[in-house]
């Protein structure tokens, strides 16, 4: 099935050439193709030669057909069988085939088969494993492979695949082109020494005579080109390939463009371990590809632009096409076949650029270049004192042999070239692109221009070169790019830029022209034959010392046979050293430093220093000084030296230490964190159920630093969070807080296992995992051994384990100042879950009123650009000059060793100079002298001897130990051990502070513990000390506010990455008080010593000459060289009189250098206009004021290496510091070189999105395996990222977050319960006990004898009209309150939800997911709409209701079989006894509360089966269905959209009775008696949240006074108890008491009452058949219905021992109705008096229901209608058949006109008014004549229209006793179409 020509007869050569000739003639338009026989015979001599530099990427494009202008034809794959697996990396049987996951499995391989690695285009980082018959694979020469295919699947074991197309479908390759075995069967797989299956050699599908694919892998090595001594090393090279493949850069597919783009490599000074000797890795051998020594074919390399008549090569099989006739071939074909550097391949295989191993032959001093091999001369390093760095460029790099250890070969520049060739691929999605990449000549020329413009000490950066390439390419194709950015625009050849290409002949001349202006710092070497010739010439020039002024040598070889080749040799001593050291990782550098220290190489450096000082050896001077000090002991003490630490304990008021101070911005960030957590909980994914958690617990992960660990413990202990979370009961010690903080070391595994186990045992506890300093360890775990001392990958092993990822109650919070490496394409953190630290200022306004300003990196950089003062960010030019000079003298020493040794000497000399050896001060730098002088003098200005801290950062522990010991010795011998402390700060060791300073700290901090010792740097506040801070990287340590100087001169200035650089600078970050900024801060800030400081600034240029110490010099000359310091730089403020206040009031100690301890003297300063003022400023007497207190609000001064300073202070084209364009972290790669720069205007969120798009993790990154199959993201749903600047207060913010999260959970578990005592209670005098206090159920006969309590006791009816009865209480309270006011003043109590509570839609725990219908593993429940129609005579028409019934609830209903039409709702039998079911259907009318209504009864029912129906209005049906998809809904007709709750109650009752009749008929056919059908329904309010029960205990001593205890019970228990009542069907209504915290002792004495029921009612629809709810009512409908039921003679029973709790829900319900005008939609307040108007008047109509207007009018203005009734409770208003609220000052006497009704005795009453509301036929004139009325009593007759009103007056003969006037007729303020109500008033005669 393959297209390989291997194994075909030789006669096919003629057919091939013939076919190619025909193809070329068809393609060519103006050129004559070469004859067939010319191609066949004239090219025979070149048959065995490799093609001109074709790369594997080119072949991939050819095989895809992408080199042709014709668009590729998409391959139509066979549709996979239904139900099979289609996931990439798995076979169709669902078995994993990825090598990374099955490498350790035992795979059975059939005889004759080999395991082969298959490349899948959708999985660029993985190989798929398959078994292939070896007969169909080529041999090592690329021949003898049979046509076709035979393979087996190693996953499912299926065998016998005879076609590769069939096999590719089975393993889910998902190809867009026709499957070819040559393209996808890439590697042989072998077992390594550990038995792991790894990638082996590349399968050589084609011989070297046809394709020349040597550059692809070291497995295909040309043995003929190797020297004899190199052949034996071939096996080692091939066997190392598996090791190498795991260390190469990976490639990714850019999602936005949909194509693969090669990743860029780190910068030339990046952190990737790519230091190569002779093209091979310094630590690991790489496979190498060989090159034939013979010239290659295709000598003519076309230019970038030109004619497009024949713009591309033919397809792959047409090998006769000659590229010399092509105007624009693929630029990838111009590179050497061996020009593949590390990371240059999409499959991750790195190939050594050199084809041969290093020669071990006899040494030779001759520089011979034989073909492509080159001998490196012996003693090259010793002769020229430099180790040259060679960057391979284009073409074939020669094989190096001989003394190869003296040179370094790097592929970084070559990779940069290759990446720039991939720039235009982003446009290939539009078809065949005419836009061409940069030509080889242009790349070389741009490289020359870049190197020429570098400063003499500037190190080249790969990022700069990439941006130059991209900018040049974009500028040259700006027209085409703009057109290609428009999707529908096609680029024509006429639109292309007309930029002239650089030809081969022009390149050397243009390069020399460009280099002519650089004073020979860049030299161009043109070679005619090969690069080896140019390299030989360069080596000879180095030996002859002819390149002393040359930093870079660019070798260019232009050959017609070989094309254009190039390489760059770094010959500058400073540049070569920096570049070679940048190729080592920090770990490798530390190993080299330790090796140099152990080997004693520092001896030569120390001897050299000793020979420089004319005063003698440094130790000799120290001994002499110590002897003098011992002879004159008074010299060792200063007048201010502290003798008694208690002496000045209360004199310094500036010393205040607060370990944990909560700032407003920290609270704001904590609330943002809480908001994001709530957003996760509120999302539809249901990944976090906050409502189910009762408490919060946490665990904080920190790096394995003792200081960081104790620092977090200190913050935690002092914050009080543990007490707030209830984790501790009292204020414990710091040791008790340590259990909540875990160091990521070998002991962390046990703690996290315990944490996970605890989370499983506590499902109702939310566990927070805080990963502090999260960027510290991002390495991928590979089976971490907990017993290992290394903690690499431990964070991945612990935080990303399956138990934590899947735990629903564990939330992970990553906290870091440098989140870049966590923001990659494979990140686990959603961009919506990122919280960025906000800015404190907005338009110069302090948003959080903190009165503080944060000084971070940007503020430090701004101080360098002010131009008015010495900046806060500086470098030491004297120190840098000495280091550079010594580096040239000692080329074999690591620069870190030299820098550290020089700085130690400077500190030692500065201490000697300040101690009195004034002649020494000229041998140290002014910066170091200032640091020591301030360190020693600052304690003298404070009565308590508070001083400054000096941070000396030395990353290498070995060098830090050396500095600690040396500086300690110098301090002791100078007698300064009482002046300041020297502390070694190591991550793995505790702080060691001397006893003298320890006593000081105890006194300052007021610590009484005798065993106390500082464990954090924060506890060193005010201590004058030098803190030698060591460790590879800072690990989150915070520094005290007494930090004055941050000396970072020894940080790594070559391994430049953004995170590494910014975290070093983050040590100096500082919070400054804003009030101090206005006068002393900002860009004009000067420290106390700044006006007098003798320092070279960053603009001075008095450095030493580079060659000053390279040759032997006389001692005098050397003395002058080493002792030279730059002249004091005048402070610009002193030159301006208006700025002289900066230098006034300074004490002598803060601005002078001391020759002796007791005598102060000034350095001589150069004359300037400001000298006199500066001198006068120090004449004043020193004021004893704490120097630390004065500088407490000043940021520290930072000293940087010159290289780092230049990078930080220089900006790129976007306006940001150049460091922002660096690779963000050593564990990530750029996704493409074709990327924009970060913009200065980007927010933190936009910057995050930038890194998410343009960075990919390496294989060693813990997120590298997080690529989702078939998805663009794979975010963990419960993972947050908090990022903020260093030292800004993130620890305090997340500790506050834990506190407010706990409070929120408690609040979520609590609700506001109405807690109002019952009103209108009447204490009975007779105190009759009807039931025993322990009775569980009522007795029906007793209940019939109990009098009905007419008084309404529910406090929500406190302002309603009292109902007249004999027990009516006459109230003497204030006037009526508006209902809105009643609601606002309702008394509530916060109460914790019990496990039997009802919930709203925000609760979605695991138990009730299925109940709610929100289980994410299933689709939303399907529902069906059913109509249900019944007739009702009172409405005069049929009523049609709609049921929305989910499929899961259809078993509650009966459907007829033919059409599934709803027939009835199932009802149980009265005698049914099911302990897990509720018999009564529950109806809940609701409006406006789709989110907040308490409809989730799963927990309240304790899992019991029940039927719950929501009754909603038609316009709200959709929104209720959305939030409650698994609930049954009864939809009211549209005519009731504006109706009140009475309509819902009315329809529920009538529907239920109609359904009862249907069920009786249906079950009667089954032999069941009609009276056995359960007749009750439940009308429940949508705010009922919990149910309680009173337990009664009767004591033996006092039976009459039982003890009551209340407990929460489930609704299931309450209902089952009530339903079990004997004779329950004889009761008309049953209900519960409304809960209040004080209870009602009157009702508790009687377990059952016959009174009004509200909110939760069991309604007997059978007995109440003739008692209806008023469908028009909005308010008081329950009171009205209770009176109707009682008057009908039915028994109402309230269970007093049960109570229902109602939650306060301020949304929806009855308050959802708004009365507004119809004229305007603007809501305005309309007084109740305007709710009515005269008929036919021009009154403004209102958009409200007529009944609502009437009820509101009567409630608030009835005193106008019934003036005699106002507060006249003995003469109430007679209300017939209806209860209407007339206000709390008017009593109402309810009577029923129905025959045989139960009414109160009214014979003795005289009524003050008569209210007739829509009277029916039962009300007659004779009935009304039974009642007596006062003279002047008011009559109010209400009817539906004016005709009915008149007819009622006539029918009831009202005119006989009542006087009416025309003006007394009114209507509600409704329009005619809204059917207003009419009423007539009159007076009794």
Textual characterization of the structure:
This protein is an alpha/beta fold. Helices cover 27% and strands 17% of the residues. Strands 40, 41, 44, 45, 46, 47, 48, 49, 50, 51, 52 and 53 form a twelve-stranded mixed beta sheet that branches. A hairpin with a 2-residue loop joins strand 10 and strand 11.
Please count the helical segments: 52
What would you report as the Rg, rounded to the nearest angstrom? 46 Å
Binned, the helix content reads 25-40%
In percent, how much strand structure appears in the residues?
15-25%
Describe the structure in brief:
The chain is α/β, with parallel strands linked by helices and 1885 residues long.
Please describe the structure with a list of short key phrases separated by commas or semicolons.
disordered N terminus; seven-stranded mixed sheet; 1885 residues; single chain; alpha/beta; 52 helices; twelve-stranded mixed sheet; elongated
Q: What is the strand and helix layout of this fold?
A:
Layout: H1 12-27, H2 36-42, H3 56-63, H4 99-102, E1 113-120, E2 123-133, E3 151-152, H5 164-170, H6 181-184, E4 185-191, E5 197-202, H7 228-231, H8 234-239, H9 241-245, E6 252-254, E7 259-261, E8 276-277, E9 280-281, E10 369-370, E11 373-376, H10 380-384, E12 389-394, E13 399-402, E14 408-410, H11 412-421, H12 440-452, H13 462-476, H14 478-484, H15 506-515, E15 522-527, H16 531-543, E16 552-559, E17 563-570, H17 573-582, H18 586-598, H19 602-612, H20 618-631, H21 664-682, E18 695-702, H22 706-719, H23 721-724, H24 734-737, E19 741-743, H25 748-761, E20 765-772, H26 794-799, H27 802-806, E21 810-816, E22 834-836, E23 841-842, E24 845-846, E25 852-855, H28 857-864, E26 873-875, H29 877-889, H30 895-915, H31 926-937, E27 949-953, H32 957-974, E28 981-985, H33 995-1005, E29 1025-1029, E30 1043-1047, H34 1058-1065, E31 1070-1073, H35 1074-1080, H36 1115-1123, E32 1153-1156, E33 1159-1161, H37 1171-1176, H38 1187-1190, E34 1197-1200, H39 1202-1209, E35 1228-1230, H40 1244-1254, E36 1255-1257, E37 1279-1283, H41 1290-1308, E38 1310-1314, H42 1340-1345, ...
Helix pairs in contact: 1-2, 11-13, 12-13, 12-15, 21-41, 29-30, 30-31, 30-32
